[in-house]
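Priority: medium. Attachment 1 of 2:
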């Protein structure tokens, strides 16, 4: 009542103002025979102080009655909720224990036991439990749980409920009073109660071991167990054995300080560079291939010339110098298993095979795999390489043509083509570049011992017509033909179909070629699928991820290898698809990931071999559309790839090679290649200079080996040369 009186004192001024306004306006007039008569009596309202007048007493009475009624309603509501809550607690306390005690659970005899579960009274210290002799119900319980129950048995219904840990929704309202049993209410500042109550009908209940509370099992000794049971009044109180699901093994770490996407040469070179500068680094390589990192050049070169019938399985080959090695950079023992990457003391390199990164969150510094697994990182390298291009006419030709077409890139492609070359009678290679010409020579050499027909077709006038000057391209075409390959030049494919068990290729000039299998070697498309999700820029002219001179796409993201469109401080923006570039760019990216901040200035080289007796090395921009100057000399027996590898002791002619060579005794000697034919046009060996604005921007060393540092310095200097014949003398091409 005192509170209501204070409230009225605050509202009284408003009431007095209203009464004054009402008294001034509550008058009406009635006009009758021009006489003004009052329509209603003049209104009078009290404007005195609170407490004066009968009207104010009425207000006090109404407000007081309202407060009394509200208080009584709240009291009845709270009291009723308390009673319902206590009834629910008593009901739960009267249920049988779900955790099996040391003594077996008893059942009432006769039909009553089959109808309802036997109720177990709460166990107290003053009332011991009587246990009749009945058949026990067996339930699997861990020894640790039994031991703890023996040491500290529950003494109250609340303790039993805590061990039972029945998970149910809480009631709408619950109020505790001093008369009620001790109940721990779930509040932010208090430890959550192990008991949660609901008034919903019984439903399937999931049991789990409780969290550590007073009188329960410690967390470090308890193993979580889950059981699902449906309570039914018509079922006896039997409990199914707890099924403990087998823990899912962790296949890879959830976080990698250095994450490398792609399992090719660039990733491996970066991993070794990172470990060299940071010996304790933990590096994770993710590749969608099933193989560990390996080198690709032997897939189209040396592997095809091996006389070992098991080369497809061993993937070991004899180099031109007769030594043997594997295509893999390192054996499996070099790597750390992904499961142990976070545990090893000194870090290491782990390879996660058969996994593809499909999404990249550059803000959250994490990637998503094809199985929706997420891995976070501190620094990331994208070295996804490229995907072999295909001709649209082949893609539209149908399933029969598609399954008879090989896009050559990976180990599995080499194995598949090797099998095709032994099982079919005709193979047609579409493409006259490095890969197409190398495969044509390799398969042509194999056809000498079989009935295999090898055909190569391309739209240029000669082999490698986009790289070599026309006169040298024609000479190379003659060399490929001498290997037993039928070369079709200026061939533009119009349509491809499958008829009468053969693949039929129609050219635009009307020629038709029938074959059993097609190898499409028409270039490489950089793999940039992650650009969209990562928000990275793709170069519109050269393709690939656009990066700066430090190979950086973002502050903690680098790109290397075929997928990188980088800025060459000497030759401008470029994208290169060769082994040596993958080594150089991967190594530089690894150094920059560890804080080196070095620009890309090293001119990488590439090479191609048309068998063991003809090969060339190149550096810079080599494009047949540029003006060229060639200086040639007569070749000798030592001017061959075979002789060059014998002298250097390596089979991969790359100055930037960082991989170790695994040598082993040679079981049998490499078959001797045919003697180098006498060159009528004196193209045995030489140097070809590619010019742009009278400055040398590219150099090809034709059957000239181990002179790449000289070529690199010429391009780096960027000077005009009045007489390139004098420059060619730096390569010692006239020495015997």
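Attachment 2 of 2:
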């Amino acid at each position: 009542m005192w509170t209501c009186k204070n409230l009225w004192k605050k509202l009284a001024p408003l009431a007095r103002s209203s009464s004054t306004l009402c008294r001034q306006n509550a008058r009406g007039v009635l006009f009758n025979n021009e006489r003004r008569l009052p329509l209603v009596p003049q209104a009078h309202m009290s404007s005195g102080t609170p407490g004066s007048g009968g009207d104010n007493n009425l207000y006090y009475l109404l407000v007081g009655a309202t407060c009394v009624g509200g208080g009584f309603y709240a009291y009845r509501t709270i009291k009723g909720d308390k009673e319902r809550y206590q009834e629910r607690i008593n009901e739960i306390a009267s249920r049988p224990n779900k955790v099996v005690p040391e003594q077996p659970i008893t059942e009432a005899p006769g039909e009553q036991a089959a109808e309802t579960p036997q109720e177990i009274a709460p166990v107290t210290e003053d009332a011991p439990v009587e246990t009749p002799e009945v058949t026990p119900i067996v339930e699997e319980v861990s020894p640790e749980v039994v031991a703890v129950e023996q040491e500290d048995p529950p003494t109250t219904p609340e303790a039993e409920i805590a061990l039972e840990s029945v998970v149910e929704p809480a009631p709408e309202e619950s109020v505790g009073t001093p008369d009620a049993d001790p109940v721990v209410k779930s509040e932010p500042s208090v430890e959550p109660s192990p008991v949660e109550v609901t008034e919903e009908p019984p439903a399937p209940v999931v049991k789990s071991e409780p969290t550590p509370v007073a009188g329960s099992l410690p967390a470090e000794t308890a193993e979580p167990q889950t059981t699902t049971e449906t309570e039914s009044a018509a079922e006896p109180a039997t409990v199914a054995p707890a099924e403990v699901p087998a823990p899912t093994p962790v296949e890879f770490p959830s976080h990698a300080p250095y994450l490398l996407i792609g399992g090719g040469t660039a990733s491996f070179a970066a991993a070794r560079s990172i470990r060299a500068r940071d010996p304790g680094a933990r590096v994770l390589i993710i590749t969608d291939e099933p193989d560990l990192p390996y080198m690709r050049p032997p897939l189209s070169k040396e592997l095809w010339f091996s006389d070992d019938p098991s080369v497809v399985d061993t993937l070991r080959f004899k180099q031109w110098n007769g030594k043997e090695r594997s295509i893999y950079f390192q054996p499996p023992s070099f790597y750390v298993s992904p499961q142990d990457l976070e545990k090893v003391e000194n870090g290491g390199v782990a390879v996660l095979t058969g996994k593809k990164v499909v999404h990249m969150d550059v803000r959250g510094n994490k990637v998503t795999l094809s199985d929706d697994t997420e891995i976070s990182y501190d620094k990331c390298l994208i070295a996804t390489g490229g995907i072999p291009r295909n001709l649209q006419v082949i893609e539209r030709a149908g399933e029969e043509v598609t399954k008879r077409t090989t896009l050559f890139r990976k180990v599995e492609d080499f194995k598949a083509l090797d099998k095709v070359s032994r099982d079919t009678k005709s193979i047609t290679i579409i493409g006259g570049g490095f890969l197409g010409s190398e495969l044509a020579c390799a398969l042509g050499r194999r056809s000498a011992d079989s009935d295999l027909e090898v055909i190569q077709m391309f739209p240029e006038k000669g082999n490698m017509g986009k790289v070599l000057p026309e006169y040298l391209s024609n000479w190379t075409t003659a060399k490929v033909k001498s290997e037993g390959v039928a070369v079709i030049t200026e061939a533009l494919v119009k349509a491809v179909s499958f008829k009468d068990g053969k693949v039929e290729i129609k050219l635009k000039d009307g020629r038709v070629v029938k074959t059993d299998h097609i190898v499409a070697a028409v270039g490489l498309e950089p793999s940039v699928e992650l650009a969209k999700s990562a928000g990275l820029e793709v170069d519109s002219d050269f393709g690939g991820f656009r990066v700066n001179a430090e190979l950086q796409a973002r502050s903690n993201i680098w790109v290397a290898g075929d997928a990188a469109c980088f800025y060459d401080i000497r030759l401008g923006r470029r994208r290169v698809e060769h082994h040596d570039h993958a080594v150089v760019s991967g190594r530089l990216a690894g150094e920059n990931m560890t804080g080196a901040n070095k620009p890309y200035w090293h001119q990488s080289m590439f090479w191609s071999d048309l068998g063991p007796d003809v090969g060339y090395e190149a550096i810079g921009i080599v494009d047949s559309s540029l003006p060229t100057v060639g200086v040639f000399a007569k070749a000798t027996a030592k001017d061959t790839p075979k002789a060059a590898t014998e002298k250097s002791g390596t089979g991969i002619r790359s100055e930037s090679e960082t991989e170790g060579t695994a040598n082993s005794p040679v079981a049998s000697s490499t078959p001797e290649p045919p003697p180098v034919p006498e060159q009528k046009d004196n193209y045995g060996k030489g140097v070809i200079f590619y010019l742009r604005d009278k400055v040398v921007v590219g150099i090809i060393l034709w059957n000239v080996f181990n002179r790449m540092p000289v070529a690199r310095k010429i391009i780096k200097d960027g000077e005009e040369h009045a007489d390139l014949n004098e420059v060619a003398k730096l390569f010692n091409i006239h020495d015997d």
